[in-house]
Amino acid sequence: MRRRIGCCVVAALFSAACGPTTLQLNVRAPPGTNQGRPLYMLVRKVEPKQYATESYDDVSARVVQPGPAVIHSEIIYPGTLLRVPVKVPSDSALAVSFLFTAPDGAWQSFIATPLPPSVDIELREGRIQQHGAPEEPPADPTAPAPEASPAPPP
Predict the structure, then answer these.
(1) Under a CB-based contact definition with an 8 Å cutoff, are residues 54 and 147 in contact?
(2) What separation in angstroms does the CA of 138 have from each of 18, 88, 127, 145, 148?
(3) Which of 106, 124, 96 is nearest to 35 (CA)?
């Protein structure tokens, strides 16, 4: 009897460690996001190599034909804060992709294992705001290049 109970405990622990977990996604979309138009968000299981090589077109095709890797999809409306719990496998890396009308920079984010309990994502007009570095406006291609200042004398 003890052996049976011990096996049940081990099986329960193993299934809890490998079973789905919940990831809380908090997505802030200011009013100017995606030129004021709704956009799709996809949460997908990915391998790091796949994430590094897939194109925007490859990912956007999954809106129409999701496939088994797509865990969750949602329409994001500008001017909103979306808080959505997503059931995800705890042993798989994820990509959170945003399908902007005119992407201008980072349009998806990689979440490695072990998965955190929550992820905060802030969107801009055509990209994901990268935290940890100040936001830089897009470069003006018509602006003259800054001149180098002369080196101080020795």
Answers:
(1) no
(2) 43, 35, 11, 14, 21
(3) 124
Q: What is the DSSP string of 31-89?
A: TTGGGG--EEEEEEE--HHHHHH--HHHHHHHHHS--TTEEEEEEE-TTEEEEEEEEEE
The residue extents of the domains of the chain are 25-122
CB contact at 8 A, 103 and 127: yes
List, for residues 89-107, the tens digit of each pLDDT value: 878 899 999 999 999 999 9
Tell me the pTM.
Answer: 0.72
Q: Identify whether 114 is preceded by a cis peptide bond (ω within 30 of 0).
A: yes
With respect to CATH, is domain 25-122 assigned 3.60.15.10?
Answer: no
Cβ proximity of 117 and 50 under 8 Å: no
Whose tokens are 């406006």? That residue is: 137
> Cβ-count burial of 57 within 10 angstroms (0-12 exposed, 13-18 middle, 19+ buried)?
exposed
Element (H, E) at 7: helix 2-18
